[in-house]
Amino acid sequence: MKKNIISLLVLLLIAFNALAEEIVVLYDNDVHCAVNGYSKMGALRDEMAKKHKYVTTVSSGDFIQGDIIGANSKGDAIVTIMNSVGYDIVTLGNHEFDYGVPQLMELSKELKASIVSCNFRSIDKTPVFPTYVVKEYGSRHVAFIGITTPNTISSSLPSTFLDKKGDAAYTFCWDDLAEVLQNTVDELRTSGVDYIILLSHIGIEPDSRKMDIRTLAAATSGIDIILDGHSHSVIPQDKIKNVNGEEVILSQTGTRFANVGRLTIADNGDIRTELIPLNTISGKKAATEEIITKYNKELSSITSRMIGKSRVTLTINAPNGERAVRNAETNFGDLVADAMRMTCETDVAFINGGSIRTDIPAGNITYGLLCSAYPFDNKVITAHATGAKILDILEASVAFMPEESGAFLQVSGITFDVDTTIPSPVVFTKDGFVKGINGTRRISNVRIWNSAERTFETIDPTHNYSICSIDYTLLNRGCHGSFGGCTLDGKTQGQLIEIVEEYITKNLSGSVGEEFRKPANRIRIKK
Q: 291-295: long-range contacts at Cβ-Cβ below 8 A with a sequence spacing of 24 or more?
C-alpha cells in the first residue's frame, strides 16, 4: 500500500513537472475601461495558475481611458482594479497619456505591473520606463518589450509632451522607430534570451507615416511573438514575415474585453495563440468583482440620471455598421457640434471625431450614456479665426481621408465639399503637426451660416469668424496643431458633456427627434 502511494506521488510529481514547462501568457488590449471583464480575467488567471506553474498576465495598452470610471478617477480606479487581477507587465497605449504625463507617472507608482516601453523617451533619447522585462520560466528566459504608436505625440494630449518653453520634452522615436526596436531586440538576443514577445500598441492600420505593425515587423528581426493593440482588431493568430523571411506570430484581442488572449509556449517550443470570448468565461474573481461593484455603486447616482429621450440612434457608424465618425459626417457628430455652436452662440463649431466613442441607442438618454460616448474631461472654448484659417483647419481635418483619423472634424454652421481624389496638400512636421499647405486643396465650396440672414454664404478668407471647439484642439495642440493661430477669447463655456446636456434639455426640450435621424449633409465627399 505504501509503495502504491509513493508510486502515485511520483507520477503526480512527473505530471506536475511536465505541465510546469508550459508557459501561459494571458493578454488583452484596448480594454478602454470595460471594467466588468476584469473579474473574469482574474478568474481565468487564477484557474490557469492552478494548472500551470508559469502564468503571466499582460496588456498592450489603452486601459485607463474609455468610460466615466476612468475619467472620474483619472485612471486611478482602473489601476486599483488591475492590481487586484494581478497583471504582471503592460505597455502604454496612446490613451494612457490622456490625463497628462504627470498623472501617468503618478499612476505608474501605484500600478504593480511593470511598465515597458522602448520608444517613449525623453528628448535626449533616455527611456522613461524600462524598455523590456525578462522573466525566467525554469531554464527558459522570455523577454517582453513594449512599444507605443508614435502618433501619440500629436493625437493624445500634445501639450503634455512639451516643456515650459513649449519645446518638445519627449519623443516616441518616430524617425527611427524600427532602429530603436531592433537595438532593443539585439541587446536581448546577445544576452541569450529564448523568446522575445513584443507588447505592441501600433495596430494593423497604417498611421500618418504609413507605419503599421506588419510594416514594422517586416523591417526588424528577432521577435517571436507580437501581442498587438490600437486598431481594435480581432486576430486569433496570424503569421507575418520579418526582414529575414522568418515567421512572427501576431495576435490581437479586439476591444473592450470582447476576448481574452492566451499564448502558450509548449515545452517542445511550439507556440500558439488563441482568443477566448469573454462570455464563455463563467468564473469571476471575488476580490476584483468586489472592487468593481464598489466603484459602480459610487458612480450609479451620477450615471443613472435622466437627461432626455431620443427617437433615433445617435451613431458614430455608417449604415453598414462600420465606424464613420473619423472620416465622414454622422448624426451624432452633428448633434454634438450643434450643441456647442448653439450654446456658445458662435458662427462655427468643431469637434474632432476621435472624441466621440460610442453610439447612444434610441430611447432614454442618461448621463452615463453621454459619458460613455464622450469619456473625456474636455471644456468648450470660444475663439476667433479668419476665413483663411478655417480653410486650413478643414484641410488638415481631411488630410488622411479616405483613411480614418481622430482629427477629422464634425462641424456645425459650415458646409463644404471634399475631393479625396486630390492628394492632400497638408505638410506635416516630423512629429505630425501641421507645417503648412502646399498644393491643390481638397476642400471647396465652403459656406458658413449667416444667422442674421438665415442662409449659408460663401466663406470670406479675410473675415474674422467666431468659432468654438474644445481645449484639446484650441489649447493643447490636438488635431495636429491645426488650430494654432486662432485668437482665443479667454472664455471657457463649460464642460462639453454639460453643454450637450443643456442643449438636449433646453434647445430640444428633452427630446432628440427625427431631424437627427440622418447626417445633415454638411460634409459632401467625392471619392
A: 291/80, 291/81, 291/84, 292/35, 292/36, 292/38, 292/39, 292/81, 295/35, 295/69, 295/77, 295/81
